[in-house]
Each structure stands twice: as structure tokens, then as C-alpha cells.
């Protein structure tokens, strides 16, 4: 039942306090109607205290006063209409079309807060998603149904990396008939949003991409709803249309900053670095919507991107994200300074579900051993480089000089690739074996001898 109130107790920022309410629900949508401008805005009940309610407005409160404004409580949560027609469309942060394609007409409306998945109903993630990027596919493989964040920093190439993943990603062995991308841009500049739109258009993948864009100059409150709208669309495509969906969200830091601002407006007690104490549960409520459900062919795989303030991986946003998700991809400012793209630092990066989605029947029998050896060898490169700075490169042993040669080749050939270069998993693994030929055979201590013999041959390369 809809109720309308015209007595506002207090207006502070984007928050409106209303008193003397009857049967109002938490999360209920509120329409804010101005008598002077005939404009209608949308808000949500974020706190209830006896007969008082706090309404958070998704927009600006300029011109709103207790005398010229009415609040209509709709009795329903924040919902969006969804159908397969959303593919190829662009929406703003609260799911309103901004591509001149018209509204989405559907008899089905979905609560953006999502539908919690019963842990017993979850299916263990299997099968990898090929991104065409060697460092990811070979060393921190993305598994269908996984949550794998990208930890970046201001000015690093995470936008280019995200666009390349969208252009190239596909399910192993799938011809993309049932594969879709949901892309959520949170608090981005207009030129960044234009970059993504043009990149997808030029790559010809628009028809399988749904975009939700919250610009930096949009009301900050919309940033809280943008990722929820995107994940709701992903759940619909996955669980009702049996589509494999990859969700990419950038930048989670903007979402967390919006949470901190709203928390401050509610006068909540701050926690680490001023962020609310419920930051962990808010992030978990987003991340845990990814996964697979038994008996349903579709899946939701999530790649959230966050820029670490001051490149600090112990910052609360990155720290809490690491607790919730199944690994991380860490970008390096040093590698980008060496003109290596994508600048992925593989040593602190990992995919915890990788072991269950690679190998025979998924990628190739040698994948696990090869990955372990490349990690080990590149770690050894860092030790030898540190030693060379102390004693000089000329005084290194012949074996250590080979290690340095491997390190340089590994960064220039394996880690580095063009932004339009799409490598298959076979090409990535073959390139890894090619680089291992640089090292002395006795240094290959993480690979089964049968694979060494099969892919490298004897000592003479035969």
C-alpha cells in the first residue's frame, strides 16, 4: 500500500528524516516529489527507529525543503525490469537507459539486493574462462563461477586490461552462444566511460555486453546501487536464461568511498581509516553473489577491480576483498614503468581455484606443473637480480646468468603482449615451455620428468 507524507523532520545532505510513520519497511523505495519543480527522485529507507525513518536519496537534495516536498512510500524494494533485451544496452547507475534505446519493457521485476544462494545449492566452480592473456590464463587461471579481483593503483593500465578481457573472454570449448558480459563502471570519468564504449563497439562485442555506468559527476549515492543493478542483471541472465556471465566492476574503491560518506552522514562510528565497520559485510554481499547453482547451466563469474590508495595492499578495501575472494591479480607500477603490458606482478598474484579447473580435460595435462615451474623460476630471478646488485652481474655463475636471461625473456615475451593480442591456452603453454629451454635442465625441479621429456625432449632438444 502506498503512503504519502509531507512533514519532513530533517534534511541533511542526501538523507531525509521522516517521523510519525506507519508500517514502513527497511529497503523500501521512496519517491521524493517536489511541488515547485514537478520533479520526482528516488530514495530508499536505510534506517528505521520506532516511528522514524531515514531515507537515502539517489540524487541531489538541492531545492528540497520540508514545505515543498512529499514522500511517497511505495511498499516495494528497489527493483529493475529485466529481459534478454538488456544485452547490448547501456544504463546509468540506477538502471535507467542512457543509450537512446528506450525503456526495457518486461513483466518481471527483480530486487537489486539479490537472492541469497543456499550454500548447499552451490556447485563447485570448474572449467576455466580463457581471457587470451598469458599471465592470467597460464599462471592465475580464471575459473567459471570464481571471484578473482584485480588489485591496481592510480594511473595503472587496469582499464585497458578490463577492456581486453571483455573483448576476448570466452568459456573453454564454447562458441560464445551462451556467454555474456556485464560491465559496471562506478564513479568513472566521462572519457573513461567513452573509452570502454568505443573499445567494445570497435571489437564487435556490443551485442553480448550490458553496461551500467555511474559517472564521477553523478550523485555519489548512485554508486551504492550500481554494482547491485549489474549483479541483478547477471543473476537473471545466468539463472533464468542459462547464460555464462562474466561481471567486471571498476572501481570498487569508489563504491567503498561512497559507503564511507553515507556512513558519516548517518553518524555511524567509523572503523579503520574512517570506513564503516560494516564494510566487510557490504563487500561480501556483492562478491558472494557470484557462483554456480546445481541443476542450472548458467554461472556468474566476478572480476572486481579496485585501485589501492598509495598502492597499499594492506589498505582496508584490498585487505577485506582478499578475505572474501578466491585469489587476486596484482598490477605492478615497476612493470608498467618498464613498458610491460599488462603489468601483472605474478608473484603476489594467485587463483585459489585454479588447481580444480586446469589439467587434462580442462586445459592441458602439463598446465599445473608448467605453472608451478614458471612461478618458481621467476621467483629465482628476483633473488639473482638482488645478488647481481651486490656483487655485479659479471661475477655471477653461468647458471645465474641463464636465470637473468630467462627473467628478461619471460617479462618481454610471456608477461607482455599487445592489447589486441588474443592467445589461446595452447599458445600460452607452448610459450612457457619455449622460455624454460633457456634454463639449465637441473633447474626444472617443479615439473614431472615425463612432461620434461615430452615437451622439451632430451638434453640436446631432440
Automatic annotation (TrEMBL):
GO terms for biological process: proton motive force-driven plasma membrane ATP synthesis. Keywords: ATP synthesis, Hydrogen ion transport, Ion transport, Transport. The keyword Oxidoreductase does not apply. Residues 132-351 form the ATPase F1/V1/A1 complex alpha/beta subunit nucleotide-binding domain. The keyword Nuclease does not apply. GO terms for molecular function: ATP binding; proton-transporting ATP synthase activity, rotational mechanism. Residues 11-75 form the ATPase F1/V1/A1 complex alpha/beta subunit N-terminal domain. Residues 356-455 form the ATP synthase A/B type C-terminal domain. It comes from the Bacteria. Signal peptide: none annotated. Belongs to the ATPase alpha/beta chains family. Produces ATP from ADP in the presence of a proton gradient across the membrane. The V-type beta chain is a regulatory subunit. This is V-type ATP synthase beta chain.
